Amino acid sequence: MAAKPLIKEFKGAQEGETLLRWAIGNALSVVAGEGDFDAIAELIQDRRYGTARQMLADALVGTRDPRSVNILIGLLKDPDVVGHAIIALGKLRATKARPRIEPFLDHPMPWIRHEAKRAIEKINRPARRKKRA
Measured in Å, how far apart are the chain's first and last C-alpha atoms? Predict the structure, then answer.
């Protein structure tokens, strides 16, 4: 419920207010829930918003919607959000994304190489079992 006003503010921010939109995206990465997938998916795929969309990758993780994986894989081709898409795919432990992430191990930007390595490690790590009380 908290995400809806933030989504409205993200859309309503003036052109050129990239930092404001990025901050709103950061807030969405904290509050996004299961009912917010469609709106966040729409925003993150809209290239008009440029790098302001970066934290929306993490917001997709918060929606817990399985469709997020395909959206994030598609965003690996978008230089404005590629690093954040890699991070989100690692958080989701998206095994089908591993072959798409592996080429980023040789990316010219060190932070993207680092995040690709971390994402692959998370994907390869066996899932932890929850302890019973």
Answer: 31
3-state helix, strand, coil in the chain (%, to 5): 75, 0, 25
Matching residue, tokens 């991070």: 87
Q: What's the CATH number where 23 sits? A: 1.25.10.10
The pTM of the whole model exceeds 0.70:
yes
Instruction: Identify the CA nearest to 72 among candidates 37, 48, 107, 106.
Output: 37
SS3 128: coil
Domain count, the chain: 1
In a domain, 82, yes or no: yes
**Residue 102 has what DSSP assignment?**
G
Tens of pLDDT, residue by residue, the chain (133 residues):
789 999 999 999 998 899 999 999 999 999 999 999 999 999 999 999 999 999 999 999 999 999 999 999 999 999 999 999 999 999 999 999 999 999 999 999 999 999 999 999 999 998 777 666 6
69 in a structural domain:
yes
